[in-house]
Design brief:
The chain has helices at residues 46-60, 78-88, 103-113, 127-134, 139-151, 172-182, 208-216, 283-286, 292-304, 324-327; strands at residues 3-4, 10-11, 13-17, 64-68, 93-98, 117-121, 158-161, 185-189, 221-223, 234-238, 244-248, 261-264, 269-271, 280-281. A 12-stranded mixed sheet has the order 9-10-11-8-7-6-5-4-3-12-13-14. A two-stranded antiparallel sheet has the order 1-2. 30% of the residues lie in helices and 17% in strands. By secondary structure, the chain is α/β, with parallel strands linked by helices. It has a single domain (3-327), classed as Aldolase class I (TIM Barrel, Alpha-Beta Barrel), CATH 3.20.20.70. Helix 1 (46-60) runs parallel beside helix 2 (78-88).
Length: 329
């Protein structure tokens, strides 16, 4: 049975958060002191994570699994979870969203376990800007992690960058030139209202149009020929290709009508939208001896409540209680 909503969309892409913990303190995500992490007993065990993925793959039509966090590399069982997920289906797409801090040491093992590729969050290649944004002096480790991922064959290595006004909003062309030089696929993302502090302001957000204008001052950009489909990024060929750059205009040009994603939090809650304010509990069912069929039915019901769009432009919009680090991208 498919994970369909009332608007004809079918979820085939599962985002699995493995932890809400992170070893960076990015200013647009959480305060400098961090957050109150989930208690250990609330977090799904490795076996529970794999069981839910199996139910999604075998019964609900899931074809792609992306592991997220927090920072998924801090999850001790990550490599084994990837290996067991790969054993479910050789044709399953398996990817990882990470800050790359520990990737230098784990990329070979992840590749051997069956991971296909990685998305790395990196907003700048300048030490001072990196330290300001992340509140950590770890840029060298991130760059080493990117190289390790590329060398391990976890390609294409994609980079997700957020521009922050007054901090790195002058660095878009520089970041793109560097990414092309290193063979990485760069995607700029509009900052979304998912910070723990609830400080997001649309007036302060660097928009997709602004990003395009900055890039076009240095590069010739033409819309890519390949169909976008349900992918969030609008792709542009750079200087005639083959390199491309993506713009993910989540706020100003939402793509909710083509959404094929469903999210599972580290504590076993289904979120049918990144901006959902309600969740559906699968952990209790898991720990109450529910059958696979019963859990699958709960999951199907959870998708029926998905709204037509995230509603950021609606005057009644309320930011989710959970920040991005606790939801999982």
């Amino acid at each position: 049975m498919p994970l369909a909503d009332r608007y004809g969309r079918v979820a085939t892409d599962l985002r699995v958060s493995l932890t809400d913990r992170c070893n960076l303190r990015c200013s647009y995500c959480m305060p400098a002191e961090g957050l109150d992490w989930l208690p250990g007993e609330d977090v799904l065990t490795d076996d529970e994570v794999v069981r839910l993925i199996r139910i999604g793959v075998e019964r609900l039509g899931i074809r792609d699994v992306r592991f997220t966090g927090g920072e998924p590399l801090v999850r001790r069982g990550l490599v084994d979870i990837v290996r067991r997920t790969r054993e479910l289906d050789a044709g399953l797409g398996i990817s990882l969203t990470t800050n790359a801090l520990g990737l230098r040491h784990t990329a070979p093992a992840l590749a051997a376990a069956g991971l296909d590729r990685v998305n790395v969050s990196l907003d700048t290649i300048r030490d001072d800007s990196f330290n300001t944004i992340t509140r950590r002096d770890r840029l060298t480790d991130v760059l080493a992690g990117l190289e390790a991922a590329r060398d391990a064959g976890l390609t294409p290595v994609k980079i997700n960058a957020v521009l922050l006004r007054g901090i790195n909003d002058d660095q878009a062309p520089e970041l793109l030139a560097w990414a092309i030089d290193h063979g990485y696929h760069l995607r700029f993302i509009e900052q979304m209202p998912l910070d723990a502090q609830h400080d997001w302001s649309r007036a302060q957000m660097v928009t997709a149009e602004e990003i395009l204008e900055m890039l076009q001052a240095r590069f010739a950009l033409t819309p890519a020929v390949e169909p976008r489909g349900s992918a969030p990024a609008e792709l542009f060929e750079v200087d005639g290709g083959p390199a491309t750059v993506g713009i993910i205009a989540s706020v100003t040009r939402p793509f909710c009508g083509d959404c094929d994603r469903v999210r599972l939090t580290a504590d076993g809650q289904v979120r049918n939208c990144l901006f959902a304010r309600q969740e559906s509990d699968l952990r209790t069912a898991l720990r109450s001896d529910a059958t696979d069929e019963e859990i699958a039915q709960r999951w199907v019901v959870a998708m029926l409540g998905k709204r037509p769009g995230h509603g950021i432009d609606d005057p009644s919009f309320l930011q989710p209680d959970r920040p991005m680090s606790a939801i999982g991208g």
